[in-house]
Amino acid sequence: MNELLDRVRETGLLAPGRPVVVLLSGGRDSVCLIDLAALIGARVRALHVNYGLRDDSDDDERHCAVLCRRLGVALTIERPQRPEGPGNLQAWARDCRYAAAAAMALPLEATIVTGHSADDQVETILYRLASSPSRRALLGMRPRDGSLARPLLGTTRAEITTYCEERGLRWREDSSNAEQTYARNRIRSGLLPELAKAHPAASANVLRTAELLRDEAEILDALVAAEVDGSGDSARGTISLQRLGELHPALRRLVVQQLADSAAGRPVPGAARFADQVAGLRRTGISMLDLGGGVRAVVERGVLRAERP
Known about the structure:
CATH topology of the largest domain: Rossmann fold
Strand content: 5-15%
Largest sheet: 6 strands, mixed
């Protein structure tokens, strides 16, 4: 127990007096997280979103309320209206959760913290690798991403379970985690056990690879920034089309991806694949190319930028 507490404290993502909004589902990971945050002495607020998607959703809400009273933590409960018709319920729930958390955190200048674990990291990397062919897929989740922090990202689910048991913390099991209709669940129950059979350190090796790639990504990001930020007459967020054409194809792809992501304010999957087409745009007058995700490349007087129409 003390080892995990010390490890999380050393990350600096939770600190005495620092305001945080904990996304509290009532599951094992978030229960562990809010207890750690309280022990460390952070100024904790909790958010529980009751989506009403399961018969026992109200039981989850009551469990969170009891836990927060025990810890002396203020709890906010949101009950969004489930949308009618077809749609991605997981995406809707995620959007509701983070929008509510942002609304709470902003006036408090608080960090939003989630209970993502090392096991979640492995599942995320494998899922993204299968569904999104890009280097971003292999980088996984970052411990800190803007106003969002993941203090348990280096902690396994087994370690979290041990902590909760030693602390006498009860948690709720989400029955939907066993449903095979979700790709993440199939990875957890099918792919990961098979990888462990192939090599007992499979998950640890995935995590270590992602860690190394994130370090190397910092160097790549610096190279991209040097090209995109420019110097002299170049404006931030632009690059001359001539210079783009002179770049190594790999760096050219990264530059186009960065321009697209910056214009959208979020990742634009697949924008990099248009890099060669962008480099071939007309340098005189104005020319444009759709990069996907509601973003387009615009070349004006030989200078490339990305924008949302």
